Every structure is written in structure tokens, then in C-alpha cells.
Amino acid sequence: MNEIKLLGKKPTRHGFGEGLVVLGEKYDNVIVLGGDITGSVMTSYFQERFPERFFSIGVAEQNATTIAAGFALSGKIAFFASYSAFSAFRNADQLRISIAYNDVNVKIGGGHSGITVGPDGATHQALEEISFVRTLPNMTLVVPCDYLETKKATIAIGEKFGPCFIRFGRSAVPMFTTDETPFEIGKANILREGKDVAIVACGLLVWEALLAAEELSKKGINARVINNHTIKPIDVETLVNAARDCGCIVTAEEHQVHGGLGGAVAEVIVKNYPVPMEFVGVRDKFGCSGEPEELMVKFGLTWKEIYASALKAIERKDKGFIGLRQVKDVEDYKE
Amino acid sequence: MALEVTFSDKTFDNKRRKPEEFSEIALEIRRDIIKSLYLAKSGHSGGTLGTSDIFSVLFFGGVMKYNPKKPDWNERDRFVLSAGHLCPVLYSTLARAGYYSTEELYRLRKYGSRLQGHPGFDMKLPGIESSTGSLGQGISIAVGMAMSDKLVDKNNRRVFALTGDGEVEEGVVWEAAMAAGNYKLDNLCWILDNNDCQIDGRVKDVMSIYPVDKKFEAFRFDVINIDGHNYTEIINAFNKFISNNESKIGKPTVIIAKTIMGKGVSFMEDKYIWHGNPPNEEQAKIALEELM
Ligand SMILES: Cc1ncc(C[n+]2csc(CCOP(=O)(O)OP(=O)(O)O)c2C)c(N)n1
Which of A237, A319, B22, B167 has the fewest CB neighbours in a 10 Å radius? Predict the structure, then answer.
């Protein structure tokens, strides 16, 4: 495995915008709908390049979602992107019926996701979309980890028939994947080998997981780091292997701990190979205004929490805990 | 020279005033907006400056009934900022009305501040009636409040709400309008900030809402068209609403206020790129000079 290096910082939304242009060049049936924030979610790149295939819908996410379904039912690959807060929730019913139930070729971009939206505050910090979107039948859900992977993932969902949702963010975040890093929908990437604990992360937290693994290695602990970029369909094989090989798992996501990546992984693990699990994410709270990196610290979304959770998971494994915790842990479980 | 920002602790009474008396108040609010956004390094300059004249009359012209010392007073009129991103103008207004100290304006959009990037009800900032920021929801909440006042509690309270003109592209806005007309909510005063600017461009180009007055008429509103920077017209519009309410006209009122995005700062005026940007140091200096 190649050494992973920090290659600079760039917002993942740029990868989305560039991916759309690549798709537009390759397929003349790609159309994009704008929701008055085209310069924020970078659909503006596509608009500049293919103005005849770009349509402004205004601030009307419900309408844009169903209009996309209409385009898809007319043979188009239809993209609509807004902030995740509005392209996963304002239009939730439309996503469920017109997109997922119809099983049409619509791709939804959820930009400005997570706490790292920063100063805009709680209303704009979507921390619940993974939970909602992954429960929709027929839906594919990807949460890429950096700029380049977002570009690859955008192209990949464009080329996969059916409803897809891609989640990305606003602020500049570490870049560390390269042209050589594989990306295949539904196939998680093992970024670092290890057998003491498996850290399964998505999005921005993949980088933090790598940092945590580096710190753990200084204590002689070898962590396996898995970039679980596809939440649905989830890579059961890679996860079950991780449980078997490592004996405990930590999940990490820029999302509520309830029902997100952690929930998705737990469903697989509990059914197939129960091992102790710890969950890093936002603990049942709304966000608030602040600087992105400040909020990552305040909400416990850094390598430090992953590191601490890994130690806890290993301790539980070593004490022979399998699924259930001891009674004294119940309090802690409630948090 | 580096820009040093201070906020005066001046407050204003809420009383009937002559039109020319509002310019001083509006200037104070506009300066607060520039300063607080400059310190925050993010936020929305355009719509906040553009609605400062309306806020001055609404809160300091004896239009709304409220008591800053008793924000929960159950006879107060309520104001819902449906266009939640415009909160810096409301934060300044509430501070200048005496709801809380102007000291809080230093910490707009900072971690731990009650002045969230979009109004957060969880912060318990006095004067904030609901979380808003997801466009279209506030006006529907205002309709619910007006229904509760008029149809259930049968009291004399009034509900005011302000939406942007890009905001009214949201479908729920028109569902709210239909309900307001249907329930004859003559205790509801809807202010439409019609600057014809939104994020991606002119409202008429992004998704035209026009003719917007005819739409409200069709939804059974009393429609009042005004210049949103002319104090006499703003005062008269609110007076008309109050008489609509007192005479139980059986219709909600909408004030369609033609405004200029960024009003008062020459390089921001009527430029939609100022929808969501703060001034940098240089720009803040020039803006504050113009707002003397
Ligand atoms: C439901 C929803 N969709 C999108 C946004 C992002 N957004 C914030 S302000 C805005 C434009 C609103 O335009 P307008 O109402 O005219 O306000 P102005 O530009 O005059 O400040 C948009 C799209 C949002 N806050 N809520």
C-alpha cells in the first residue's frame, strides 16, 4: 500500500462541480437544475459550459426534485444540487416517492453538509441526511472523503442508473487520494492495514481516522482504516472481514451518531459478526455558529475522539465483551 | 490605519415619529450591520441594509406593541423574520430597542454567541420568536400564530413577518398565503422585501415571481405597494394595516416594499453579489464613512 500524504486542501464541492462537467462532455443527456446557490455547490461550472442543459428553478427544492424526476422519465440523467439541509429534507417526500419509489435516474447533490458549514449555524448544518437517505429503497448514497474522490464519485453516480445521493461539504479539507486510488461504488477502500482495531469512516472523518491510526501506531496499536465512501449499498464483505480480523470497530462521521454510517455498519456487524463497537459523531445535538475547525473540536469530530474510542473498543475486546456491555456502562451508552 | 469597531449603547423608544426622525435610527442600524458583519467575516450585507428603513419604522414608529423588558409579555405583537439570513438587521434592531446590550453585536456568528448565523430559538435571545433560516417556513409559522390569535384566543395581537422576494419562490410560501386568505387573517401583516435580487442574480431571471401583487390579490390579500426607503410611505402602509385590522377587513395585508439591496453603501447598491458577503476592512471603512 502506498504511503498516504497530505496533498493540500480543497473543498469537496469543487470535485462535484468538475465531475458534472466531465459527465456533460461525455453524455449529452445530462441536465442540471439550479436552486439559487449554483456558485456555492458549483453547479455553476456546468452552467457556464453547457448553458443549454442547465435550468434555474429558483429557491424551490421540492419543485426542483420533482422536475428532475420528470426529466429522468424523459430519458435524461438529471442532477439537482442544493445545501443538504434543503436537498435532503425540504424535499424529503419528493425524494421518497418521485425519485426512490419511481426508481428514476435522478442524482441529488447535498452540499454544505455537516458541522463544517461553520458560521451559518444549525439551520444550515445538515447532520441527519445519511440516516434519512439510506433508508430509501433503490437509493445509492455516497459520502466521498476528499476533493478528488468527490469528483470520481460524481462521475460514478452519473454512470450508474437509478436514484443516487452524494454528500459533500463547503470548507477546504485535506486532499490525500490520488488518480491511482480506486473508487468503485459499493466497494470500501482499506487505506491502512491493521489487526487491532478497525476504524470505519466516511467523508471528512477519513482523514481524521488516518491521523488517529498514526497516533495509535506510536503506542504499538495497528489500526485498519477503512474509507467507507458508499453508505448504500454497503460493503458487507469488507466490514465483516474487519470485524473478524480486528475484533472491534470504531465508526467516525460528520453526522449524528444515530442512524448514520455507524448505524449502517452496526446493522451489518450485529447480524454477521458481533464485536464491540464505538461511535464517533455528533451526539444527538444541533450544531451552532462557529469556525469549521473550532466546531470539529467542540463537537468531538477529530482524531482525538477516534483515538480515545479505539482504545475503549480495544479494552472492551480484551475484556472479552462481545455484544452487550456491562451494567456500569449503560449510563455511558445513553449519551 | 486599522479599523477599530465600537458599538454605542444608544437605544430608541418605540413611538409615533415624524418621517424625518427615522433616518438617524436607520443610520445607526446600518452602521451596526456593517460593523457586526465585518467582525463576523461572513454574513449577508445586501438584504440587511436594504430593509433597515422598514425595521426602523416597524420597531421604533409605534407600529408594533412590545416590551423589551418583558419579551414574553403575552399581549405583545409578534415579528417573525422568515428571511432568516437577514438576522443582523433584526439583531441590531432588538439591541437598539433595549432587548439586550449592544455588546452582543461584537460576537455575531461566533461560537457560543446568542447571535447565530440564522436565528436559533435554542439560544433564547429575547425578541426572537422562532428559529428561521430555512426559507419559507417563517411565514407559515406566522400564519399559524395569526390563526391561533384570531381564531382560538380571539385576542387583539398582531403578527408581522418579513420574507425576501427570492424566498417566495418556495412553494410553502403560497400554501401559507392561501391559508392566510382562507382564514381572513386581518391580524397578519406580511412584508415582502422586493429588491429583485437573490443569490444567483435578478429575481426576474432566476425564477420570475412577477406579477407578484396580482398573485397576492388572487390569494385575497389587501396589497399595498410602497417605496421601502420612503418613510412616509412605510408609515402609511403600516397605518393601513392597523386600520385593516381594527375594522376587521377580513383580509390579510401584504406590503410589497420596493427596496434596493445594499441601500446606503454606494458600492453595494443594487448588486446581487452583496446578497451573502460581508465587507472586508477597506470596504467597511468606506461604508462607515458613507453612513455618517
Ligand atoms: C429552503 C432554503 N433554500 C435555500 C436557502 C439558501 N438561501 C439563503 S438566502 C437565499 C436567497 C434568498 O433570496 P431573497 O429572499 O431575495 O433574499 P435577498 O437576496 O434579498 O437577501 C437562498 C437561496 C435557504 N436558506 N433555505
Answer: A319
Task: Calculate how close chain A gets to B198, using CA atoms only, in Å.
Answer: 7
**What spacing in Å lies between the alpha carbon of A172 and ligand 1's midpoint?**
23
ipTM of the complex: 0.96
Protein residue closest via CA to atom 11 of ligand 1: B198
Per-domain boundaries in chain B: 21-290
Pick B198's closest partner by Cβ from A59, A121, A294.
Answer: A59
CA B105 to chain CA mean position, Å: 17
In this structure, the residue with its CA closest to atom 15 of ligand 1 is: B164
Q: Looking at the complex, does the CB of residue B117 fall below 8 Å from at least one CB of chain A? A: yes
Our measurement of the distance from residue A216's CA atom to the centroid of its chain's CA atoms, rounded to an integer in Å, reads 24
- CA–centroid distance, residue A121 to ligand 1 (Å): 15
Q: What pLDDT tens digit does each residue of chain A (335 aa) get?
A: 458 999 999 999 999 999 999 999 999 999 999 999 999 999 999 999 999 999 999 999 999 999 999 999 999 999 999 999 999 999 999 999 999 999 999 999 999 999 999 999 999 999 999 999 999 999 999 999 999 999 999 999 999 999 999 999 999 999 999 999 999 999 999 999 999 999 999 999 999 999 999 999 999 999 999 999 999 999 999 999 999 999 999 999 999 999 999 999 999 999 999 999 999 999 999 999 999 999 999 999 999 999 999 999 999 999 886 545 555 555 455 54
Which residue, A18, A248, A273, is CA-closest to A146?
A: A18
A29, A70, A71, A130, A162 from A105: Cα distances, Å: 11, 10, 9, 20, 4
Residue B247: is it exposed, middle or buried by C-beta count within 10 angstroms (0-12/13-18/19+)?
exposed
Cα–Cα distance measured from residue B13 to residue B66, given in angstroms and rounded to the nearest whole number: 11
Closest alpha carbon to B57 in B86, B29, B26, B102: B26
Domains of chain A: 9-174 (3.40.50.970), 189-333 (3.40.50.920)
To test the pocket of ligand 1, the residue of B85, B190, B263, B271 to mutate (highest count of ligand atoms within 8 Å of its CB) is B85
CB B56 within 8 A of CB B90: no
Give which of A305, A318, A182 is closest to A248, Cα–Cα: A318
In CATH, what class is B21-290?
alpha beta
